[in-house]
Amino acid sequence: MNAPTFPLHPALVMAQLAEMRDQFRPRAERAMGILRAKWFLRDCHLDWGVATYGRVVVDNQGVVELGPRLSFMGGMVPTTLTCHPGARLVVGASSHFNYGVSLEAWESVSIGERCMFASFVRICDRDGHRTAPIVIEDDVWVAHGAILMPGVRIGARSVVSAGSIVTHDVPPDMLAMGNPARTMSMDLVARGTGT
Prior knowledge:
The protein has one domain (10-192): Hexapeptide repeat proteins (UDP N-Acetylglucosamine Acyltransferase, domain 1). The protein is 19% helix and 32% strand. The strands form 3 sheets. The chain has an 8-stranded mixed β-sheet. Strands 1-4-7-10-13-16 form a 6-stranded parallel β-sheet, with no helix packed on it. The protein is of the alpha/beta class. A hairpin with a 2-residue loop joins strand 19 (174-178) and strand 20 (181-185). It contains 2 helices and 20 strands.
């Protein structure tokens, strides 16, 4: 006895194929990002799950350590990681970098876990006058076009607003904005917006 056969409607088949594609696309893109990271970041110490979705330019003459589950997004300008001889650039787990970010270490740049960097952020521990370590603690968000100058420490859960130039330390749970950046409590920001 043969099993009954049902005619397949082309629209139903197309819908099922589209659903399968939508389910597997994020996994396939992540897998390609991880493979791409192994190529672009081959001169770095990579932890598992690091993915690049666009070009990343690396000039590593020191030590670059990239934690697990990092993402480097693609865009019109590549992200650059530069580590000079004897320097150290360390990025914690689950941080996210948009396109055009520039990280440059002459001595030490340390980035915590779960940090987010918008496009065209510049972080360099040397300007024309001095070299001093930069420390960015956990859960920090640095918005578009912000610049972090040598010797600053950005406290945990702080936000650096777009276009700001940070020349002094930012305590935890603060908003830094302006040129040069001034800080205000995130509590005041939340109250001021009526939330």
